[in-house]
Predict the 3D structure of the following.
Amino acid sequence: MTDTRALIIKAVDVDAALAERHEAFGEIVRRFQDMAFGCAYAVLGDFCLAEDVAQEAFLTAWRRLAQLQQPEAFPGWFRRIVLTECHRLTRGKRLAFVPLEHSHHIPAADDPYARAERRELRERVLAELGGLPEGERLVTALFYVGEYSQQEISRFLELPVATIVKRLYSARQRLKRGMLKMIEDDLQSRRPSRSDAFAERVRARLRPFAEQDWGPVTALTYGLEPDYRADNEVWLRNRQQFDESRYVRRHYVAEHAVTKQILGYGSIEQTIFRPRFRLFLMAEPEWLRAGVGDLLLDQLTRDLRELNAILVWHRNYARLTGVLGFLAERGFSEAGRAWDLRLDVAAFDPSRFEATRERVVAQGIEIVTYAEESGRDPECLRKLHTFLNAVKADDPSRQPFTPEPFEAAERWCASAAFIPDACFVAKRGGEYLGFTDLINYEVCAGGITQGFTGVARAHRRQGLATAMKLRAIEYARRHAYQTVRSLIYPTQASVLALNEKLGFRRAYSYVTLEKYLKEVSRVDPRAYEAYVGEYAPDPGVLTPNCLPAAASLTIKQVGEHLISELRDMQDRLLPESETTFFTTHHYGRIEFVKDACGEVTHLIYREPGFEARARKTRRAPA
C-alpha cells in the first residue's frame, strides 16, 4: 500500500498543480474501482446501481480526502463511504436500470428464446450469489470481480486474512462448481476495470470556452441564480457585450468526460482598472465540491498570474453560500455587502411627492438630461466628472476614496450601459448641484438599473435627490420598464431610506469577495508619517515619459491607509515592503528613498515603460 499512500499524499497536496492532483486521484480510482463496484454489488444485487454508487463514493472520497489523517487507512475508510452510499440508496425505493451503452447487446424483440435464456441465466446467478450470507457474498464479489488478493480484501474490509480465507472457502462449498464459474464470468464481464470508462466518468475535463457553449452555460447560470430565470437574455447579454478588443477575458467550461455535459463555467474579466479582474464561477454545489470548482479556479488563477493581475473579485447572492464558502476557503475575503432593491413602476404614485418637486423648482433649480446639457455646453462631461468625484468623496461606502480619472468617464459615456436621456443633472445657472442616472447594466427582467445618486453637501436634505429620482422613474414609465433596480450598500443609510420612502422593496442581498494576487505586506501605519508631503518632478532626472514639470504629487495618510493624489486622481497605496507600494487601479509602484539619516528625500514611480522621480518639497507636518 506504499504506492497508494504516495498517491493520496499527492492528491491532497495543495501546493501541487491541480492537474497533478487529479492524475494521482485518477490512479486511486483505477486501483479501487473494481473493489468499490464489487462491494456495492454485494449489498445491492444490481449491476447498474452498484456502478452508480461506486462513482458517487469516489466523488465523496475526493471531497473528503483531506480529512483522512492516515493515508494507509484509505481502503477501510473508503469501504465505509461505499457502504454509506449503498445504505442511502436502499433507504428509498428504486428501479433497476440498464445502461444505455449496453442496449445494443439486448436481443432483438424477434428472438424471444434468446431473451428468455439470458434472463433465466441472470436470475440463476443472482439467486445463487444472493443466497450467500452477507459476509461471504461480499468476499466472493470482491474476489471474482477484480481478482483482488486475499490480503487486499483483508485491508479493504479491515478483517484478518484468516477470516477472508474462511469465508471464501465456505462460499465455494455452498456454490456448485458450474455455478461458481458462471458467477465469476458474469461479474468479471461487468467489472469497471474492463475499460477506462468508469475512471473517466469520475473526472471532469477542462477546455477553453467556445461560442456554442453560451446556450448550456447560460442555462446552468439561470439554474443557480433565481433573479435571472425570468429573462434568459440578461446574463447572456452582459457577457456577450464584453469588449474583448480592449480588455482581457479568459473563460473555460468543465465538462463530463463521457457525456460532454457542461458541469461548470469559470471566467475572469478585466475591468477598466486593468490590474483588477472580475471572477465568475458557476457550478452545481455537488460538482463544485467534487473537483469542478478547483479545476476551474486553479486554471483561472494561473491565468491571472500570467496577466500580472493584482486583485480578483467575485459578487454573488448572499444566499448562495456554496460558492461563497468555497471561495472563502481558498483565500477570498468579504469586501462588502449590498441590498438589491426593486421598484414596481406601474404601482408607483408620483402625486405623493408633488410638494417636494415644487419646492425644488421654487429654488430656481432645474433638472436636465445629460443629452440636453452636453448639447449646450461642450465642457459638460468634464464639469460633471469633477462634480461627481467631489460628491463621491463624501460617500461612506467608498472610503478611502479613490477618484476616477477623466478617461474613465469618457469610456463610460461610450459604453452600451450609458443612456444620455436617462442621465439627470440638477443645476442652478451653470452650477451643478445633483446627479442621478438609469443605466443599462445588470438589469433585471423587464427593468432598468438605478446608477449613482449624489447631491452637493450644501444642498442636501432639501428634496433635490427625490426630485431627480422622480424624473428617473418618469423615464422608466415612459419607456415601458416594469421595474427599477437599485443596489445599495448598508453604509448608505440615507440613500436606502430615500429609496424605501419612494417604494423600493428589498429583494436580495449580495456579497462581494476579493483576493489579492500580489501579496500585501504588514507595515506599521506609523511608518507612513515619514512619507506624507508634497513631491515635485526632479528636473535633473526627467525622462520623455516623466511627470509634467508643473505636476505635484501629494502623499497623505487617511486612517491606516496611505494615499497618493495627482491632480484629480487618487490611489490607495498598498505596501509591498516598508518602502515600496503598489495600487490596484493601474500597474504602478512607488518607492520611497531615504538618505543616510533615514529622512525621505524623494520617490520613484515605475510602471511598464515609464519611470519618474519626484523630490520631496514639503515634509510631513509635525
In short: Residues 2-200 form one domain.
